[in-house]
Amino acid sequence: MNQPVRRGPIATFFVGLWDVMNFTRKLILNLLFFGLLFLFLIIFVVAVGSGGGVKPLTERTTLVIAPEGRLVEQYTADPATRALAKALGDKSGDEVQLRDLLRALEAARTDKKIERVLLRVDKLEPSGYASLRDVAAALAKFRQSGKQIVAFGENMSQGQYLLAAQANEVYIDPMGALILEGLGRYRQYYRQGLQEKLGVDVHVFKVGEYKSAVEPFVLDAASKEAKEADLYWMSDVWQRFLDDIAKARKVTAAQLAAGIDTMPEGIAAAGGDLAKFALQQKLVDGLKTQEQVEDLLAERGVADEDADSGFREVDLNGYLLQLDSRRPALGQRPQVAVVVAEGEITDGDQPAGRVGGESTSALLREARDDDDVKAVVLRVDSPGGGVFASEQIRREVAALKAAGKPVVVSMGDLAASGGYWISMNADRIYADPSTITGSIGIFGMIPTVPRTLEKIGVRTDGVGTTRFAGAFDITRPLDPAVGRVIQSIIDKGYSDFTGKVADARKRSVEEIDAVARGRVWSGAQAKERGLVDELGGLEAALTDAAKRAKLGEPDKYRVRYIEKEASPFSQFMSGLAGSHIGAAMLKDSDLARSLLARSLPEMEAHLRFVDEAVHDRNGAPVKALAYCFCGY
Q1: 567 and 522, same structural domain?
Q2: Helical pair 387-402 and 480-505, crossing angle rounded to 10 deg
Q3: Could you confirm whether 417 is annotated as catalytic?
Q4: Is 331 left (phi over 0), alpha (psi -120 to 50) or beta?
Q5: Local confidence band at 266 (pLDDT 50, 70, 90 cut-offs)
Q6: 548 beta partners
Q7: Mean pLDDT of the region 467-481
Q8: Burial of 264 (C-beta count, 10 Å sphere; 0-12/13-18/19+)
Q9: Range with lowest mean pLDDT among 118-127, 483-492, 569-578
Q10: Is 288 marked active-site?
């Protein structure tokens, strides 16, 4: 039988002291925990109780559409992060969803309470011309309903102006600026800096003379093929831009082009006044300050002394809340599901705003397993990425079709390289004429730095059990035999890519190769070459998908976005920060700022894609990429 351990008086004292301290620690932590929990519950109950519902609109309201931040297909931060940022007044990561703009304009078109739209787009950051043309079309449709659009800006880029031009009247501040300059694509080239200055040798493996993503690392200037391809698709997009502006402003594209060609003389004639020059070019209808525009709207609409603007208004977010409050019960209607694939395509489970081989596949699989989902629209806005992750997603598209559910792809601003890979097996591919697509090609790139290390007196040496042991160590020179292995892998990847496209598009491999080889096309050019089926936006794709599933008229089915669900904590924090009391409490809260700081990586620009790919190969010595550094 074990005898109890006898402690001396000193040991007994310290053990007793520890027990007291431990009890006190637990007591304080429990009090803090339950105190914070009680505080949050009080705030939550008060916030919910003080919400009072959405205040109904009154007659003759002006809808103020003044989006701030990047125009995106899908938010890149979770609801809690966005709500916290808003409560703290942090606008650095502001985003506006394309679907929200389109939804608001479509509803306002027939809303008897909405009299007109005030459009301010000088804080919108366009991502490309395809999404802008979607919004422009919605604005034009609103205007055709007989309701007025007044646009105002202090300084507008040409992308922002594409939207403003759709207004009945366009005003710019007398001290503002608006210049149309054209499309350009200029990049920095690092060969001399990397190879001659730093001693970094960059080894490139690719298929396709037009696959120019790697050129900045191995050349001092753009290749002839890169310039030829870029100018070809950019000229098509630019001419369409001029035609869209000309149609909206009732001038000719030739007049707009002449104004750009003679810009130095025109601005000099206007005394260097950019606002006056825009007026002379008939880009705007008048020069007014913000206050003058607000006075004009108060005069035409209903004056409201309680509103900062002086007229009866509702902003975009307020109007979206109105629309949400009016939604009828959904019931068990059949669904057309929308899955968004926006951003770089990488392996694994990725957050919103990026495309993960596993996470995006899981969303498509959810659509396949849901009996209420009868058809799927895959909305693609991606420059591509890893080949394996792209193939994972393509397989899920094929599985949806095999399950009897139609899949229609709607290409946004960009659906190139891996973005095309995940699209090619759809029943139908839609693209805007200004979408950037194609870039069917594969590349690999390995930098080696032995010469760089030698500059500081460092060398690499050792032994291996085979000639290829350590062959992919970038501190050693690349063995030519290893280079042949990598090129074989890249060749095989290109063969897989073109073969799968040929099979999906019912064409020969030779026909696909002729329009592939890494070359980028506009949406209109891609349709001419059989890579795209129809020209149109998201709405056209949704209608097509519903028709293929035989769902009938739009009121017989509903559209549902399948996205990652926010965690319960995220939902709670979003509701807290979104309430008036919660926002006021969090505004000066160090806790809120620390929470926001921890979430900022999700809101910032994505890490350099190639750097990430180099460091994440999932154990494979070589990782093939289907990526397009395209844009303007």
Answers
A1: yes
A2: 20
A3: yes
A4: left
A5: very high
A6: none
A7: 92
A8: exposed
A9: 569-578
A10: no
H-assigned helices in 111-223: 129-144, 158-164, 191, 215-218
Beta-strand relationship, 534-535 and 428-431? parallel
Q: What strand order describes the sheet that includes 355-356?
A: 201-207, 442-448, 625-627, 384-386, 345-346, 355-356
The order of strands in the sheet holding 114-119 is: 286-287, 169-178, 148-156, 114-119, 61-65, 313-315
Mean pLDDT of 328-332: 66
Number of other residues whose CB lies within 10 A of the CB of residue 83: 24
List Cα–Cα distances, 176 to 119, 125, 276, 280, in angstroms. 16, 18, 9, 14
Last residue of a domain, one of 265, 290, 325: 325
Domain residue limits at 176: 61-185+238-325
Task: Pinpoint the alpha helices (H) of 403-458.
Answer: 418-421, 450-454
- Residues in contact with 315: Cβ distance below 8 Å, sequence separation at least 6, in sequence order: 64, 66
Question: What is the rounded CA–CA span in Å between residue 337 and residue 98?
Answer: 17
> Which one from 127, 206, 211, 434 is the annotated catalytic residue?
211
Cβ neighbours around 485 below 10 Å, total? 17
Measure the CA–CA gap between 628 and 506, rounded to whole angstroms.
24
Residues 339, 342, 347: CA angle, nearest 5 degrees: 95
Amino acid letter at 493? G
In this structure, the answer to whether residues 534 and 588 fall within a common structural domain is yes
Co-location of 286 and 427 in the same domain: no
Give dist(CA 170, CA 45) in Å, integer: 46
Catalytic residue among 131, 309, 382, 417: 417
Last residue of a domain, one of 325, 355, 382: 325
CA 280 to chain centre: 36
- Can you tell me the distance from the alpha carbon of 593 to that of 361, in angstroms, rounded to the nearest whole number? 34
Do 398 and 475 have their domain in common? yes
- Rounded distance between C-alpha atoms, residue 216 and residue 195, angstroms: 12
Alpha helices by DSSP H, 210-330: 215-218, 224-249, 253-261, 263-269, 274-280, 290-300, 316-326
Q: Is residue 212, in this structure, part of any structural domain at all?
A: no
Residue at 501 is within a domain:
yes
Q: Model's pTM, two decimal places?
A: 0.83
Q: Which CATH number fits the domain that encloses residue 129?
A: 3.90.226.10
Contact 430, 541 (CB under 8 A): yes
Distance CA 218, CA 276 (A): 46
What burial letters (b/e) apply to 379-401, b meaning 16+ CB within 10 Å? Answer: bbbbbbbbbbbbbbbbebbebbb
Helix (H, G, I), strand (E, B) or coil at 402: helix
* Cα-Cα-Cα-Cα dihedral sign, residues 252, 256, 261, 266: positive
Opening angle at CA 543, ends 535 and 333, nearest 5: 160
Question: At CA 391, angle to CA 77 and CA 563, rounded to 5?
Answer: 30
Q: How confident is the model at residue 351 (pLDDT cuts 50, 70, 90)?
A: confident
Name the pLDDT band for 176 (thresholds 50, 70, 90): very high
